[in-house]
Specification:
2 copies of one chain form a homodimer.
Chain A: E1 2-3, H1 5-17, H2 23-38, H3 49-58, E2 68-73, E3 76-80, H4 86-104, E4 106-114, H5 120-128, E5 133-138, E6 159-163, E7 171-175, H6 182-191, E8 200-201, H7 211-216, E9 218-219, H8 224-240, E10 263-270, H9 272-276, H10 280-292, H11 302-314, E11 316-317, H12 320-328
Parallel strand pairs in A: 3-4
Antiparallel strand pairs in A: 1-11, 2-3, 4-10, 5-6, 5-10, 6-7, 8-9
Helix pairs in contact in A: 1-2, 2-4
């Protein structure tokens, strides 16, 4: 089905507000999910509305939460998402961090008692569009083990980064630290096909080609021991240093059972002029020029930016089934 | 040959001060190189003294440089290493960042016109020993391409991280973003043996098992496209946002030819109490307990910490050839 972005947002807002979510939160969530859909990230898009709405109805997420901000140190804000959705907390961060970064040189937001972080690229890009550099990490329901281990302790724990580049779109990096998304293993199980041996481990920590064994085990980190170490770093920053739940303490983001996930996210925003003086913008343009001059290289983030631009003009295509599900809520 | 740490430092100080390095810089370098050696990181240890001394003698590194600090924003310091060694700049950062982080909540040091960053783990660990969390990135002479490309534009661009854990050593992560160290390819060339096909690309961007073709090409990033994207992030932070040279503009760290490398490093130090309140230390202990309870998991950084402790007690073993080279300088 074809939808304009505005129509898609209205659809999401309606579905959420009928399931114990207030108007302001529903708007924030709708904007984020539709932007994800527009950027070609359907897995963090409209397909999530069902779980989001059911969790609000069940009270696993608080649809009436108002994120609370506390600034006890000049360059750091703590944001309590109050077990609501993550996006209103990110909106709050985006409303205060730029000014703090411009004044202090760097600013940090630590978000706790939060929820699904969605497409981090879209959050960091907001800062780059204001001329700032942003780094963001998030934890997530546990699906990866520490290297050599068998117990899921870390989420796929994404790292995202955005930097402004003069006269073109920001450079945006957004990557989960698992080798592949867990959704790919779930899809293989549904189709009854094997998975490559480097995607996941079984419950004994051995590589497996069996999708069912993989889902009972752990996802393989990208870059083996190094990816697992980075997932540990993200866990400490996004979970430990925010006062959030750790990945292994969090409940599922996909069903309405159990207590609130209570996940955490950390955002660090840097004023390039503070760290690098006045010439940074031109230097970044030069770096991007050097990288782009190599045939075969595609800049990270460009595909999503192109897709969003096209979606703004001509709307998005969404599977009828997904729309029907949202209408039924 | 067996040496105490003090004797090893004296050896390095003598060699450097005879090659146009002042006493204070020689001390700082000696401490860093001997600590690297003690941590089992010989590739960043005494083996480097020859190149360090020859570069000072040739003026490629300024052995008399005094790093200069500028603080125009409350939470950010810019450090000009003035084409000297990196370690005196890190010492300067370590002398000011803790207080800034305690006051502001977060502190950033941007180091430019710098040199070989050595073992980043040892630098970030200093902050963790003071109860702070530290994140550090560095660029390096270009050896990796952007994903899909053929031109070396990024260094192996390491990321390091340290966090304090109550009643035990800090948790320390330190990883280069190449799949393996370039030294491994150089060793294979010397022995005349093939390398695994996932270590490097030839000059056409194709995987190669030929060590000579690999050295003319680029190193493979850890975690493929994701590692290459992280290397780009590090390049922007450590090179672009500091006002340093980019990796592709830097000269070699191994010979005394050409202009100064002028590399960059960025350090971010977080006060855990500012971002996470009073309970962070106990939470991190709990995370480490959860990770360690999984048999087969070894915490990152532990091997180096154990090696250093042993070296403090009983000294280090260094190849006679390395000592002879240092004596000859």
């Amino acid at each position: 089905m074809h939808l304009t972005l505005a129509a898609a947002e209205t659809l999401v807002i309606d579905a959420l507000t009928r399931n114990r979510v207030d108007e302001a939160n529903a708007r924030s969530v709708a904007r984020a999910l539709v932007a994800a859909e527009a950027a070609g990230q359907g897995g963090h898009g409209l397909r999530r509305v069902e779980a989001y709405a059911k969790q609000a109805k069940a009270g696993k997420v608080d649809g009436f939460a108002k994120p609370q901000l506390e600034r006890l140190f000049p360059a750091v804000v703590r944001i309590d998402a109050c077990y609501g959705y993550a996006y209103p907390a990110f909106d709050l961060a985006a409303s205060v961090l730029p000014e703090i970064a411009r004044e202090q040189g760097i600013a940090l937001a630590a978000v706790r008692r939060s929820h699904h972080a969605g497409v981090l690229a879209l959050t960091v890009e907001r800062f780059a569009e204001m001329g700032l550099v942003a780094l963001m990490v998030a934890n997530a329901t546990a699906s990866m083990a520490a290297w050599g281990g068998r117990k899921p302790v870390f989420g796929t724990n994404p790292i995202a980064f955005a930097a402004p580049i003069p006269e073109t779109d920001p450079l945006v990096i957004d990557l989960a630290l698992s080798r592949v998304a867990r959704g790919k293993v779930m899809a293989a199980r549904q189709k009854g096909v094997d998975i490559p041996a480097d995607w996941a481990f079984d419950r004994n920590g051995q590589p497996t080609t069996d999708a069912i064994a993989a889902l009972e085990g752990t996802m393989a980190p990208s870059g083996e021991a190094k990816g697992a170490a980075l997932a540990m770093m993200v866990e400490i920053l996004a979970g430990g240093l925010t006062g959030a739940n750790f990945s292994f303490e969090s409940s599922s983001l996909f069903d309405d059972k159990g207590s609130a996930p209570g996940l955490g996210q950390m955002l660090i925003v840097i004023n390039p002029a503070a760290s690098g003086g006045s010439g940074v913008a031109e230097r970044l343009a030069m770096l991007v020029g050097e990288i782009s001059s190599d045939p075969g290289v595609r800049l990270p983030g460009r595909r999503g930016q192109t897709a969003r631009r096209q979606a703004l003009e001509s709307g998005i295509e969404v599977e009828g089934e997904v729309i029907a599900t949202i209408h039924s809520l």
